[in-house]
């Protein structure tokens, strides 16, 4: 069952790269021994973006304190492998690596509780990122890069974080910090050969030097010197494909926004943007090869994969179901021009769907004028599988009067005009009166939810009829292996969407429940969601109080320590058993009315967002009444005037 769930969540396309075997750093495995290991798979892509070369590499993480083991495949690798998958392997140790075959890989092995990410990145998301500046023992960063590293990644403009914020229409926020530099014991040659093997020790060093906690950051980015190994390192970027609970990227070209965004794109589950047989050749997207001579954003197919639309509720209106004339607004940042859709999708009977878009040289697309000027003439036509980790293929860029024809699918796209604001008008001829049935689209958003013990959570599930416009309406049947659906039968016309709510109820203790929803009798992949029950109470300790009097003001200063696994907690302050205030801080000042000497009993109740709570011990704080004059300390008034004694 577990392997089935992982396969549902992943679905990685089988894109083959050459994998070179080399001696691994020490990992404690006996040479030439047959071993059986389990742990968490990490898939990396090692690539030289200017040279347009790439290779996949695979590591098995076996738990804290154990060096990762590189896996060398004899033959092709399993198509579903993604970072974060739990696997068990059997193989032979050769020069510290473990040689395996696809037949000796079993998904669903012990992954220490790591759940793999979906094949699509999550929209309306925030990602935490830690950038560690790393100097090799014999190679250091330039002063220019050291002085600008924060702006390269997190600056308010012309940075990786700003790029993603703007091109996602504000749906992806990257928040993080830059620390370093640290000087590691590895040479430049060792860093080039096997950076992931040393990543854990580099994080140990950064944590000790700067007081950070790696567990607060999902993305761990290592900025290594751009001149590493004399510039002959063999890669400009080295990144996880996909991201489980944590993922890594190693960047030599931190100064180049195209490179940093490209490697972060692999973390999000994006494959390359190509043209024909060249997987890097589409220069309309930073998922093509990198150059420092200009910037550009993403192609329309990758926008579709990530769910980044200017109006995320209008996705289904962007499908072309029949012949006609269509306006395409430019794929601008933040908001498109006019009211036309900025991305159209055309499903065909044979091969991948088509994606149509228009571009303008603004914002992070200013570099298109030099990098790919044809993208600015009119409609850009891409093909892509529609979901999951797969290459996008740019098949045409049209100008006015030009056409693209797919004779296999009887499809012709002709550009009629391009307006001054960049809006492009095209005609689409899909043949006469033919019904082209397609598997319906199925999605859930969000795919993760957290509740308290016994509480329920509703996951919205969306179903789209992808049949061509000449087809009759159809009734689809939804099914789930957990929980209940608000509607199991949905009747939809071609191009229409409908929905249902999947309700899951949490148990009495902490834990995860994975449920899937499928469409009966269809080839549509099921969608998986996960409900987490948080039954862990927050902690609170160290409550102390002190009395302070200034003039007529009587105050008691309270402070305490508290924490919660959810990262969010509020505190209710109680005086003599009655609640007097609520705060999100670890301190509170209680201003008292004028009173004689008294003693007050205080407690603090910590409450997390899921209703779990903890109550502190009671402390008693005594006050001093006395006189409320200016003396501030109680006791007799000072004597003033002629009547004072000598």
From TrEMBL:
Question: Which range is the signal sequence, renumbered to this chain?
Answer: 1-23
Listed A to Z, the keywords are:
Signal
Specify the superkingdom.
Bacteria
Q: Which residues form a coiled coil?
A: none
Residue span of region Disordered: 621-646
Residues of the Peptidase M11 gametolysin domain: 157-386
Q: Name one GO molecular function term.
A: metallopeptidase activity
Q: Name one Pfam family in it.
A: Peptidase_M11
Keyword Nucleotide-binding (UniProt): no
Q: What is this protein called?
A: Peptidase M11 gametolysin domain-containing protein
Q: Which organism is it from?
A: Seongchinamella sediminis
């Amino acid at each position: 069952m577990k392997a089935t769930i992982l396969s549902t969540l992943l679905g990685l396309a089988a894109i083959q790269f050459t994998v070179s075997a080399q001696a691994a750093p020490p990992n404690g495995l006996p040479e030439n021994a047959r071993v059986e290991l389990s742990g968490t798979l990490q898939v990396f892509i090692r690539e030289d973006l200017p040279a347009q070369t790439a290779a996949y590499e695979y590591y098995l993480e076996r738990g804290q304190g154990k060096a990762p083991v590189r896996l060398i495949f004899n033959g092709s690798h399993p198509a579903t492998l993604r970072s974060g998958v739990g696997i068990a392997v059997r193989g032979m140790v050769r020069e510290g690596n473990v040689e395996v075959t696809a037949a000796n890989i079993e998904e669903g092995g012990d992954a220490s509780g790591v759940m793999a990410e979906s094949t699509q990145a999550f929209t309306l998301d925030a990602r935490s990122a830690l950038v560690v500046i790393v100097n090799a023992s014999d190679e250091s960063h330039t002063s220019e890069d050291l002085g600008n590293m924060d702006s390269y990644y997190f600056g308010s403009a012309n940075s990786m974080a700003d790029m993603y914020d703007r091109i996602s229409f504000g749906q992806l926020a990257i928040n993080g910090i830059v620390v370093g530099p640290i000087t590691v014991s590895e040479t430049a040659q060792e860093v080039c050969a096997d950076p992931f093997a040393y990543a854990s020790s580099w994080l140990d060093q950064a944590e000790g030097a700067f007081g950070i906690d790696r567990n607060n950051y999902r993305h761990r980015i290592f900025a290594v010197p751009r001149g590493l190994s004399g510039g002959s390192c063999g890669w400009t970027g080295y990144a996880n494909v996909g991201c489980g609970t944590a993922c890594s990227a190693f960047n030599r070209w931190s100064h180049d926004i195209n490179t940093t965004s490209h490697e972060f794109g692999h973390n999000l589950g994006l494959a390359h943007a190509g043209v024909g047989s060249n997987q890097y050749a589409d220069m309309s997207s930073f998922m093509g090869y990198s150059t420092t001579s200009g910037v550009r954003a993403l192609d329309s197919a990758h926008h579709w994969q990530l769910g980044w639309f200017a109006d995320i509720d209008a996705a289904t209106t962007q499908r072309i179901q029949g012949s006609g004339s269509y306006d395409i607004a430019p794929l601008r940042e933040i908001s498109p021009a006019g009211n036309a859709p900025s991305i159209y999708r055309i499903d065909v009977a044979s091969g991948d769907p088509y994606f149509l878009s228009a571009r303008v040289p603004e914002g992070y697309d200013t570099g298109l004028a030099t990098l790919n000027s044809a993208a600015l003439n009119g409609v850009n036509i891409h093909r892509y599988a529609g979901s999951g980790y797969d290459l996008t293929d740019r098949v045409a860029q049209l100008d006015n009067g030009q056409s693209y024809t797919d004779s296999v699918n009887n499809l012709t796209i002709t550009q009629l005009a391009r307006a001054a604001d960049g809006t492009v008008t095209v005609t689409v001829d899909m043949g006469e009166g033919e019904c082209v049935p397609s598997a319906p689209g199925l999605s859930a958003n969000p795919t993760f939810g957290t509740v308290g013990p016994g509480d329920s959570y509703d996951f919205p599930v969306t179903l789209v009829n992808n049949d061509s416009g000449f087809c009759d309406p159809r009734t689809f049947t939804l099914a789930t292996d957990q929980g209940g659906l608000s509607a199991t039968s949905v009747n939809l016309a071609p191009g229409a969407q409908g929905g249902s709510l999947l309700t899951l109820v949490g148990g009495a203790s902490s834990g995860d429940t994975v449920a899937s929803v499928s469409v009966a009798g269809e080839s549509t992949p099921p969608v998986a969601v996960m409900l987490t029950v948080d039954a862990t109470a927050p902690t609170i300790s160290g409550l102390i109080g002190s009395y302070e009097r200034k003039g007529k003001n009587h105050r008691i200063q309270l402070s305490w320590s508290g924490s919660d696994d959810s990262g969010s907690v509020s505190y209710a302050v109680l005086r003599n058993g009655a609640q007097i205030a609520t705060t999100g801080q670890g301190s509170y000042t209680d201003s008292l009315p004028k009173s004689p000497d008294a003693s007050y009993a205080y407690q603090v109740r910590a409450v997390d967002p899921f209703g779990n709570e903890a109550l502190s011990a009671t402390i008693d704080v005594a006050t001093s009444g006395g006189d409320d004059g200016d003396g501030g300390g109680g006791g007799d008034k000072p004597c003033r005037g002629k009547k004072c004694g000598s």
